[in-house]
Amino acid sequence: MDDFRLTAKQITRLKTLHRTLRDRKPANRVKVVVLLCSTWSVADVAQVLLVDETTIRNWLEKYQQGGQEKELKSNCDRERVNINGAVDIDTLETVTNFADSINSQSTMRLFDKLEAKHPDAKKIHVIVDNATYYKSQMVKVYLKHSR
Questions:
Q1: Residues forming a β-bridge with 97
Q2: How far is Cα 92 from Cα 97, in angstroms, rounded to an integer?
Q3: What is the DSSP letter of 100?
Q4: Beta strands, E only, the chain
Q5: Tens digit of pLDDT for each residue in 97-138?
Q6: Which residues of 96-135 are buried (b: 16+ CB within 10 A; e: fewer)?
Q7: Quick one: DSSP state of residue 136?
Q8: Is residue 44 over pLDDT 90?
Q9: Among 59, 74, 134, 139, which one is least packed by beta carbons within 10 Å?
Q10: Do 131 and 102 contact (CB within 8 A), yes or no?
């Protein structure tokens, strides 16, 4: 973009930030800003990152409104929140379990909460995704002795 410029110091800071980012989306946003301040067009950046041109323009606009701190920091310095939960499809009531990480132990704690919430249920049906902790030996043993 012809009217978008960054100083050499700003570009260096963004490149340094890019090397520290683990998540793809904030890393791509940094790439957008750096590439657009060079000779790359919006169309070229969109084609390489496999997103549409409107997304590229939106990311740049957000960066221009608040700079690196507003647009990028919130995406790379956040604390991870792990919530495992279940929804009763009849009542839409939820049961949640907050944990440092979602694993076999936190899954079994969620199942314990489900059984406590429904003490009279003969069976509790749970639909899960393909995460490895749902298929762990520990969870399999737990499920043999639960509802």
A1: 84
A2: 16
A3: S
A4: 82-87, 94-99
A5: 888 888 899 889 999 999 998 888 888 888 888 888 888 999
A6: ebeeeebbbbbbbebbebbeeeeeeeeeeeeeeeeeebee
A7: S
A8: yes
A9: 74
A10: yes
pTM, 2 dp: 0.46
Given a contact cutoff of 8 angstroms between Cβ atoms, the answer to whether 111 and 104 are in contact is: no
State how far the Cα of 75 lies from the Cα of 93, in Å rounded to an integer.
Answer: 31
Domain boundaries, the chain: 8-76, 82-144
For residues 25-38, give the mean pLDDT. 89
Q: Where are the beta strands (DSSP E) in 5-138?
A: 82-87, 94-99
- The first and second tokens of residue 74, run together, are 């919130």
What's the CA gap between 49 and 5, in Å, rounded? Answer: 21
Contact 50, 44 (CB under 8 A): no
Backbone angles phi, psi at 86, to 5 degrees: -140, 150
- pLDDT confidence of residue 125: 87
What is the length of the chain?
A: 147
User: If residue 117 lies in a helix (H) or strand (E), which one and from where to where?
Assistant: helix 104-117
CB 107 within 8 A of CB 96: no
**In the prediction, which pLDDT does 70 show?**
47
| Measured distance CA(45)–CA(52) in Å, rounded | 9
